[in-house]
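User: quick one - fold this with 5CA bound?
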Amino acid sequence: MESWVGHEVPRLPGRGGPLTLFDAARRGAHPSQPDGVATMYVCGITPYDATHLGHAATMIAFDLVQRVWRDAGLTVRYVQNVTDIDDPLLERAERDGEDWKVLAMRETALFREDMEALRIIPPEHYVGAVESIPDIADRVLALLKDGAAYRLDDGTGDVYFDISAAPEFGYESNLPRAEMLEIFPERGGDPDRAGKRDPLDPLLWRGARADEPSWPGGDLGPGRPGWHIECAVIALNLLGESIDVQGGGNDLIFPHHECSAAHAERLTGRAPFASHYTHAGMIGLNGEKMSKSKGNLVFVSRLRADQVDPMAVRLGLMSDHYRADRPWTDDVLAAALERLARWRRAAAAPAGPSGAELLAEVRARLSDDLDTPGAIAVADTWADAALAGRADDPDAPHLFAETLDALLGIRL
Ligand code: 5CA
Ligand code: ZN
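Assistant: Sure. Structure tokens for the protein plus 5CA:
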């Protein structure tokens, strides 16, 4: 699939330090230690509705990972998927009397525009589920042959993963089984499906139904892929047997990332699949998680159409820590607009406090688990001093602007 178009990222003097990042599996922040090349897989959209601020916040969080890694001199290999076939997409298309392919193409195109406007560095590979189906079918067959998967004997052709084939199942989310059982049906799982060995066994391959799209699956038979195997296979095929960061929103901790890790680890015999399972907090509106199913959405494209500066949207979404569940409010946007205007005035000042110190402090804040509130506070202090005329480094305003552009993705 086509990715979107990137912007030039300024090269900053010197180098940033290693990034420390939260890992859900170890329940703590640990240095990411990529050896020259850093690999990241981020779970992208299911394109049945426009990009909302929750998607944007998650994409911004992992864009910061990429920026900090690049600034530390690493080569970044980044893959993101599009779940361009899945139940929610088919249900929405059915509801609106629309072709599911047209719906997916339109919303994916809008997502690309939103990502460009928000200055998200594009992934190296932007990959759809549909184009990955032959690879996914191969891997599902491999799991069947290996005894880690089984086919239901009800004639549907549905294939499930046997979680007892993953002895470490649960290590990523750290959830007790009772909680897993509660969450599983809320996030696409089908614990009550007759014939499953364990209620938590996830679907790998859904056999063809008369009224649903399906693809040839070779020896598997016709059908379409399950959700977790989609991400496991795309990541394995494009990034290798283990990756540095598996990213997404915290609604994916279980079952999605638990199951895709279990699939990948069984397929490769290598664990852990990711050295960091990193999750962005949920953006809420009026006290609830912003979600397509609840319908309480603020769309990036709507704000753009209303002439809201995308840089203010980005800044507002970074004004709290990426891991915090946080609300989007009029005040968040107003504060971001005011700050952006102040920073723009400061960048036009004749001089400011030491640019080198500013850069070092912003680098230090971001390499500490992407502390954007800390980095923004550093920039505020610098801007206040520059605007008060309390400083005399004539090169600093330029470096201020370049630092914000390269590290925070904020173009003044
Ligand atoms: N296609 C799957 C991932 S493979 C999916 O979850 N799609 S999605 O469209 O529902 O979400 C896309 C990305 O945005 C995911 O990483 C998801 O975790 C994240 N996300 C969804 N809602 C929110 C929200 N309210 N706040 C923050 N991130 C969110
Ligand atoms: Zn995913």
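One thing worth noting: The longest strand covers residues 75-82.
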